[in-house]
């Protein structure tokens, strides 16, 4: 009976983890370029004796929904969206990070930066600086080329990975590439669209439906565990009366 309790507890922990992720998805409905997440689980089989294995559920990792969000026009020439498979790169105090959030501004030094002040990098790893405002508003081409009039400033770096799921979330819509996951230039897999931002790919109706289903499953498991506990208590009480007799 204790095995049933432990299995039930492992299931409840899994359901709690799922609810946490659904809640996080809902909270990021309006976050630029946010990707919905799902937990990944694996089965753990323990030999309980007498050749009767007991199966538990373990939290294994996180899977991101890689589908693109809807592109929405903005009034800023520094906003850019990624149309296709690719990532922007930015320089942070902790090293290069990758993002699909193209909400950039120009800092006092003329650099294109994120709202946190991280510099957008070009295809060679250098900062993109627009230091001649007299030349007018910069134009960013589909290939990432940044120009003011006839003056080409640089080219926005667009990168891809063999497996995007390897990227680790680093906060502020940023992702860190693990050792060995070298980025490559996205030649024809993505286009840079100026004056647009990618929205979250979270579907609110789907997430709310999933949350309701998870809550019901959690309550069902709680009821089963309560029933199992009551059975154990009843069995102990009866054994006690038999021993007293």
Properties at a glance:
single chain, 245 residues, 2 domains, three-stranded antiparallel β-sheet
Topology, pairings included?
Elements: H1 2-27, E1 37-47, E2 53-64, E3 71-73, E4 80-84, E5 88-92, E6 95-99, E7 105-106, E8 112-113, E9 119-120, E10 139-140, E11 145-148, E12 151-155, E13 159-160, E14 168-171, E15 174-176, E16 184-185, E17 190-194, E18 196-198, H2 204-244
Antiparallel strand pairs: 1-2, 3-18, 4-17, 5-6, 5-9, 7-8, 10-11, 11-12, 13-16, 14-15
Helix pairs in contact: 1-2
Low-confidence stretches: none
Give me the secondary-structure category: alpha+beta
N/C terminus separation: 25 Å
Q: How many independent structural domains?
A: 2
Strand order of the largest sheet: 6-5-9
What overall geometry do the principal axes of the alpha carbons give? Answer: elongated
> What is the C-alpha radius of gyration, as a whole number of Å?
26 Å
**In what range is the share of β-strand residues?**
25-35%
């Amino acid at each position: 009976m204790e095995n049933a309790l432990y299995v039930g507890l492992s299931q409840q922990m899994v359901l709690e983890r799922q609810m946490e992720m659904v809640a996080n998805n809902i909270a990021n409905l309006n976050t630029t370029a946010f990707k919905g997440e799902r937990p990944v689980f694996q089965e753990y089989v323990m030999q309980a004796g007498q050749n009767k294995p007991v199966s538990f559920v373990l939290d294994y990792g996180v899977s991101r929904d890689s589908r693109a969000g809807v592109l929405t026009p903005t009034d800023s020439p520094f906003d850019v969206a990624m149309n296709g498979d690719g990532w922007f790169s930015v320089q942070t105090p902790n090293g290069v990070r990758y993002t699909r959030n193209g909400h950039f501004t120009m800092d006092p030094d003329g650099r294109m930066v994120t709202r946190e002040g991280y510099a957008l990098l070009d295809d060679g790893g250098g900062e993109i600086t627009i230091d001649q405002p007299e030349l007018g508003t910069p134009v960013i081409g589909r290939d990432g080329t940044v120009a003011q009039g006839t003056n080409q400033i640089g080219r926005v770096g667009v990168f891809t990975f063999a497996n995007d799921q390897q990227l680790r979330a680093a906060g502020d819509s940023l992702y860190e590439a693990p050792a060995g996951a070298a980025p490559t230039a996205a030649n024809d897999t993505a286009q840079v669209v100026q004056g647009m931002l990618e929205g979250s790919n979270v579907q609110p109706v789907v997430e709310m439906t999933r949350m309701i289903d998870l809550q019901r499953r959690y309550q069902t498991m709680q009821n089963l565990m309560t029933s199992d506990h009551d059975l154990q208590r009843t069995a102990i009480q009866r054994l006690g009366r038999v021993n007293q007799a």
